Amino acid sequence: MLEATRRIFARIALWAALALWAFATVAAEPGREAGQNAASPVEAAYSARAGTPLRQFGYDQFGSDGASRSGTGAVQADYALGPGDELLVSLRGQKSFSKRYVIDNAGLLTVDDVRPVVAQALTLAELRAELAGAVASAYPNTDVFVSVTEVRRIGVLVTGAVGKPGRHEIGAFGTLLDALSAAGGVTRSGSLRRIRLFRAGTGDDSRAVDLYELFITGNGAQAGLRLRDGDRLFVPPLGPTLAVMGPVNRPGIYELPPDRNSLTLVEAKELAGGVLRPGAQRALRFAIGPNGEETTEDLGGAPAPVLTDGDLLSLAPLREDRRGEVRLEGHVLRPGPRALATARSLDALLTRADLRPEPYLPFAVLAATDPATHARTLLPVDLAAVLRGRDRRSLSEGDALYVLGADDVDFLTSEPVLELLRGARAPAAESCQGLVVLARALAARPDGPLAKGPQARAAAELTGSRIACPPLFDAVPDLLVFALEHSRLLLGGVPRPGFYPSAGGPDTPSYGGASAGRAVVEGAILESDEPLFELVGHVRRPGVRPLAGGATLRDALAGGGALKRDVYPLLGVIERTDRRTLARALIPFSPQEVAAGRANRRLADGDRVHLFSAARVRALLSPTPADSAPPSMEEPIPPTVAALLGERIVQVRGAVRDPGPYPVAEAATLEALVAAAGGLAATADPGAVEVTAANGTRRRVDLAAAGRLTAGPGDAIRINPAAQAMEARAVTIAGAVRRPGSYDIARGERLSSLIDRAGGLTEEAYPPGTVFLRESERRRERDVYAQKARELEEWMVREVEKGEAARSDVVGLARQLATQLRGVEPLGRIVVEADPMVLRGRPDLDPLLEPDDRIMVPKRTLTVTVTGEVQHPVAAQFVSGKSQDDYLREAGGPTRNADSDRIFLVLPDGRAQPLALSSWNHTVQAIPPGSMLVVPRDPKPFDFLEFSKSIGGILGQLAITAASVSVIAR
């Protein structure tokens, strides 16, 4: 009895520990929203049984902000309008403006000076037709454009197992998923398959919604149903569940369908997204018995429904082995498996097209598996013989060929390897697995050739580099020891002294191009008496050459004959290795100076001479991503050499064809730098070249007289452009001139010259009404309008935060005014004198022209326009001596929204003058033809604004802009 009790308590303790572990694991999963970090009781229970974290399906589909799901995009013409919808109405023609209007609670759309239109229940297309008719009766020849800028909000009541139950507002296009997201989403204690939707006005009638249809198949018609104002949603508690684990697309916990209490094995697999690997599967069912015990059952291929509430289904492939495969790994372009049927031998497995740049040809490793014992054996392979077709060794299933690169071979002589060969007992912390295996091999054979042989003694005098362990030695640790066991230590005749592995066949070439046919002696130390150097990069015949008779750079480059035509002329690099310390030095030189016989340098044994193409240097120093550069067939530039190029930069800017950074050796002449930058541009001024030294001093030189003047690393050269007599862009003159059109202008040219070039004014021209538009002035006016709109919006935000209902109407007016300020398109009109007779007598009034100026000279007119807040805007006939009162009476007089104290007159040339009509001012103003009387809107509704003094000016500027548009259109 005591023993049984102990077992019960031990099981309870184990289950508690697993539940706590699953709780912590699920809580730490990335991607959980705040408030969802803790595992639900259902998740904790299933995770403890499965021994791996399992999550409930579907609950991460809800956004944290329901408003973000209510965007509408473009509203279609069949959208039914209602109170609260905001519309943008634009009129173009006799009346031109763009304003936003909101359909009021009565369903009416009221546009300024147009009869109200009943918009409720109309589609957008029907409203456009209705509004077009209303506008046509008020303003003939006026087009109407209507679009929806903001849809109305509707209220939906969401209750049950949601994050924030209650009434929530969503957009008129909102769906059930939007409402649930606005309510904080369904909690993991709620059901996703038994949601009830109660339609507004239908009593207790409801619809069942299963979100699994939407989340799994995308066909959830009910879930995508558009909600109405007043609809109700109820989320009941979670229903029966089961869990699926193993190699499936969606392992997790799933709720059973609302009309079923069990599933078949096939249905459970489909619910989890199907298995990741086709083929026979082992299906185990873990069920909770009537007494609470867990039972295990192998389902096999049971077709009947066998999975019920609380079941845990575990799937696993019957077999996970792979047949008919060999592998190609390491320094190849596409590592991975290959079909044995097409690669039955080494020469069929590997071709030159499979190799990455800088492969190591004397040695590769074949990992073969003995079919009888299944023991794994490493065999050396002469890669050069394989590529020549001389090694056609057959392959077996499971074999793998590992190809080494130059970096892999360099690591054999790295400092971490040399430290172990000198006697270190263990590699440094966090070393790769290859070093760990090497340390174990040395410890297992302390008197072996690797630990006590001649190579180990010679390694004690070497200094290796601190390069990172290649991934190949971390993935296959045995390769490092195997490569060292098949290596010889070359101290001469190679560019980089060190360990070089070799397969030892008769076709094995020594690294760097030494003669073939020499037998490999494992563990040998070879030091060649023949000095060598290597040409690398953009040369006609790259490779290793004998360093006979103290060769120099000039001998190596053969007076320029070894260089390709597009070699970069200003910088090459000699990579030199010290034989004793293995320390490397980088020595810059100028290929151009060497080829011209003005510079030279003696080469040393093992030197590597790097030369580059001009295109490759530009691509290396370009700010564009490296993957956008064209691929190069040359070997990659070592990182240290690339860093040297980036350190020795001269910036060439200004009027050259290819400005940018150009690396140099010590210094380069200005002529050579300009030639490297593509030469002078057509606009260059060779006599005004600025040279800024790295210490900040600057001087101006004439390129033609610069001679051998040089610039070095850190300097900057700027080729200034020559002064241009012509402006970059033309001006346009139109209207009553004899030759209208676009004209190129010289710097400092004036309006009178342009009028003269255009043939002068015609007989019907009206110079006082000339419209002069300037782009810079248009941008300034737009900035002013935008600033005023921002001030209005900031004031509205403060008023809304105060919550004062008394100012709600003022806030609405301010919103309309801000919208109008953002929508207005300023013209940039400036006042000029355009009469050629006046300009000849007053040259100081003749304006200078700027690029993109537009001038329009109108024909003589006999009308005066009255616009703004009047009963009926009109173009009245001009009569000499007619007063402003007479013109206003012809327009029906001011409206009740007019500001009679601020009526102003826009003269034909664009100037504005006030026309005060108050009792204390009876100034008589002559009104010339082509003028415009503007009655602005009363700014009194905006008296509450902190900047109310400027509102009158804002309204006046808007009126002037509208008046200018009307003048130009006329």
Automatic annotation (TrEMBL):
Residues 243-282, 535-565, 649-701, 731-766 form the Soluble ligand binding domain. The keyword Transport applies. InterPro entries: Caps_synth_GfcC-like_C (IPR010425), Poly_export (IPR049712), Poly_export_N (IPR003715), SLBB_dom (IPR054765), Soluble_ligand-bd (IPR019554). Residues 75-148 form the Polysaccharide export protein N-terminal domain. It is a multi-pass membrane protein. It is found in: Cell outer membrane. Keywords: Cell outer membrane, Ion transport, Lipoprotein, Membrane, Palmitate, Polysaccharide transport, Porin, Signal, Sugar transport, Transmembrane, Transmembrane beta strand, Transport. Belongs to the BexD/CtrA/VexA family. It holds the Pfam family Caps_syn_GfcC_C. Residues 875-937 form the Capsule biosynthesis GfcC-like C-terminal domain. It comes from the Bacteria. This is Protein involved in polysaccharide export with SLBB domain. Residues 1-27 form the signal peptide. Residues 156-235 form the SLBB domain.
